[in-house]
Amino acid sequence: MTLTVDTEFYFTELIEPLRARGRTDLAAAVEHVVAQYLRETGLKGMVRRLDRQYFEGRLTPGLKRLLARPAVPTRPRTFTARARA
């Protein structure tokens, strides 16, 4: 199910009447869809939707790895032989 700015209001309004009729299963499903839509607004949300729809969720982790800051280089360790007693 796909929500838009225009339809999100109507789905939100359905939750309480569904619960009042004893359809908690449908109310929970509508809540889940609305919550998912609200998490996916803006540019980040558009990228998440495209990733899920076309790349099966593989694009976002790859982008995170690609855009991650490189680790601060450390001084290479030097190993010295210790005298055995």
Q: Would you write up a description of this structure?
A:
- This protein has helices at residues 8-20, 24-39, 42-54, 59-67.
- The chain has one domain (8-67).
- The chain has 85 residues and is mainly alpha-helical.
- 2% of the residues are buried.
- The protein is 60% helix and 0% strand.
- It contains 4 helices and no strands.
- The model has no long low-confidence stretch (mean pLDDT 79).
- It starts with 7 loop residues before the first helix and ends in an 18-residue tail after the last helix.
Concise structural overview:
With 85 residues, the protein is mainly α.
- In total, how many beta strands? 0
Oligomer: single chain
| Largest β-sheet summary | none
User: Per the principal axes of the C-alpha atoms, what is the gross shape?
Assistant: elongated
| Unreliable spans | none
Helix content: 55-70%
Number of helices: 4
Give the tally of structural domains. Answer: 1
The overall average pLDDT, rounded, is: 79
Cα distance, first to last residue? 73 Å
Based on CA atoms alone, the radius of gyration comes out at: 25 Å
- Spell out the helices and strands N to C: HHHH
Overall SS class: mainly alpha
Strand content: under 5%
